[in-house]
């Protein structure tokens, strides 16, 4: 049983994995993505030398997650070229691609942890028990080019949006 929790509509749900903090080294990951030539993997190494803003959502097909993804997609246009914005969820890559096409998400990479949930465990976001089992909690991470975490927000209530301004300020 986990000792860390977040709330879903005021009710605590347990999280699996460590609570990461600024200064920690970002765990590596292998996430799946839908690409023109089929499914492919994306790892932390693929973004070497870049600052990453990693937006994590429970499911793109919910209003708050959709809004979070649209907001970061819009803000990505104002960020320098050395910043990559990722959205990570447990949604299947095909569902992510459908969402991105419908919502005109074209400035960020949308990646899936559905295969192994290793990202969720490594970043302390996996909801492993109860009715929300096997989804990711809402969070935002900023990782510097040195792979050190510069900013972390584990959003305490899953149904609320993150602090966009603080995350974007950490990218600068």
Identify the CATH class: Alpha Beta
Which spans of ≥5 residues are poorly predicted at pLDDT below 50? Answer: none
CATH fold assignment? Glutaredoxin
Q: What value does the Rg take, in angstroms?
A: 15 Å
Helix content percent band: 10-25%
The secondary-structure class comes to alpha+beta
* Largest sheet features: 5 strands, mixed
| Basic shape | globular
The side-by-side strand order for the widest beta sheet comes to 7-6-5-10-11
For the record, give the distance between the C-alpha atoms at the N and C termini, rounded to a whole number: 38 Å
The number of distinct β-strands equals 11
- Domain module tally: 1
Subunit structure: Homodimer.
Catalytic activity: a hydroperoxide + [thioredoxin]-dithiol = an alcohol + [thioredoxin]-disulfide + H2O
Protein name: Thiol peroxidase
InterPro entries: Redoxin (IPR013740), Thioredoxin-like_sf (IPR036249), Thioredoxin_domain (IPR013766), TPX (IPR002065), Tpx_CS (IPR018219), Tpx_Peroxidase_subfamily (IPR050455)
Outline of the structure:
This protein is α+β, with helices and mostly antiparallel strands and 172 residues long. It has four helices and eleven strands.
